Amino acid sequence: MLAVTNYDLATLGRPTSVLPQQQPHYQIASLRAFLPTERVVENLTPPNRPLPDKQPRQENGSMFGELRKQFELRDESGIMAYLHKYPRLLTLLLEAKTQVVRIFGEGTRAVLQISVDPNDLSAQLFIVIPIQLSAKEALALFDQLDQEWWLESAKRADFRMNFIPEFV
Predict the structure, then answer these.
(1) In-domain check, residue 54
(2) Which neighbouring-strand residues pair with 126?
(3) pLDDT band at 26 (very low <50, low <70, confident <90, very high)
């Protein structure tokens, strides 16, 4: 019997082989954190797999509140879904804000933004730092942040977040 190539969303589009009489298996719930909420269709989730919690865990609740105070959130629901998926980033984000203020100065805003690659639906969290400096000055500050803190801390984040400038 010939195997048919099928695309399994759980493997993010990588082909898998199934026999013709088998039904393809799609795990939509695993992509939930990376899609805008208006594009998620609840009834596509297999009945034997519960949806991820929509409420923050009790122990992380105060951290989410602190995060809202420290950062401007672009697409708050997407960011919260991402942080539910990767809760280790919460403490690192709060550390990051301290480091941003130390390097870029008091009163520096920091913005959280999710970026989703449309080709493979992979996502990454960015800490966007709006700055009014020349590119050369900004690069020097980002290099300082990298050398003094971020290059070592990125490992703790499993490389799931990064810093970018926003020239204003």
Answers:
(1) no
(2) 113, 162
(3) very low
Q: Total domain count for the chain?
A: 2
Question: 73 - beta bridge partners?
Answer: 112
Dihedrals phi, psi of 26, to nearest 5 degrees: -120, 130
For residues 99 and 150, state if they share a domain: yes
Between CA 104 and CA 97 the distance in angstroms is 10
pLDDT digits (tens, 9 = 90+) for 67-106: 999 999 999 999 999 999 999 999 999 999 999 999 999 9
- The candidate with the shortest Cα–Cα distance to 157, out of 62, 64, 91, is 91
Both 101 and 40 in one domain: the answer is: no
Query: Helix (H, G, I), strand (E, B), or coil: what is residue 15?
Result: strand
Q: Which domain holds residue 83?
A: 60-167
Residue with tokens 């300082």: 144
- Residues forming beta bridges with residue 16, ordered by sequence position: 6
